[in-house]
Amino acid sequence: MVSANKEMAIYCFDNLVAHYGGEQPPPPAFEDGNHPLFVTWKKAVNGAEPRLRGCIGTLQPHALISGFKDYSLTSALRDHRFPPIEAKELPFLECTVSVLTNYENALHCLDWEVGKHGIIIKFTDPDYNTRRNATYLPEVAAHEGWTTIEAIHSLIRKAGYNGAITDSLRKSIQLTRYQSTLFTMTYDDYVSYVKSTRGVAPTINGVSTLNGLRSVIH
């Protein structure tokens, strides 16, 4: 089974740095394959807990190399919930790559475990007779401290439904549960890796993406 790994996170950072510099990223150092995947960016400032800055991926199998190349930028620059990540934010970022596995049809909307399963819900909006769907990765409910029913209610809202959440609505939900492997890397760790393996720190137009950009911010 393919697992999320350090090389995938490095490739995502490589793509973002190359985007800001108008360059091509170095080739990836992991093997290709077809799996559902997500890229999550978070930002931490002044020692605070990292906060979400973008998270986009696909629930359908996708070529890993092109998938991480595409979604590293899409999640950083085109997540409609957030403004695009700017180059000056790089030193404060962390990247989590997720590879999804073990898809299973649940018996009902609470037939899953917090901290173990990610969930996909599909249901018909009773007010507009339209199909709605949404997903949370396995780590979300545990991080938020939700019970299964609290996570379901939040996910219903994430799907765009604003009406009353009734027993009837919950019973109509089709839920798919899945698991994932993930790997998280901070920008400092990325820079250290690049310096040790390539002999030089990442730069954008000749400016260090660590000390140089931090000096611009401060």
Structure, explained:
This protein has 218 residues and is of the alpha+beta class. 33% of the residues lie in helices and 31% in strands. It has seven helices and eight strands; from the N terminus they run αββαβββαααβαββα. The protein has helices at 6-21, 64-77, 138-144, 148-158, 167-172, 187-198, 211-217, and strands at 34-43, 51-63, 93-105, 118-125, 130-136, 174-186, 203-204, 207-208. A six-stranded antiparallel sheet has the order 2-1-3-6-4-5. A two-stranded antiparallel ribbon has the order 7-8. A hairpin with a 2-residue loop joins strand 7 and strand 8 (207-208). Helix 1 (6-21) packs across helix 2. The longest helix has 16 residues, at 6-21. It is elongated and about 60 Å long. The N and C termini lie far apart (44 Å).
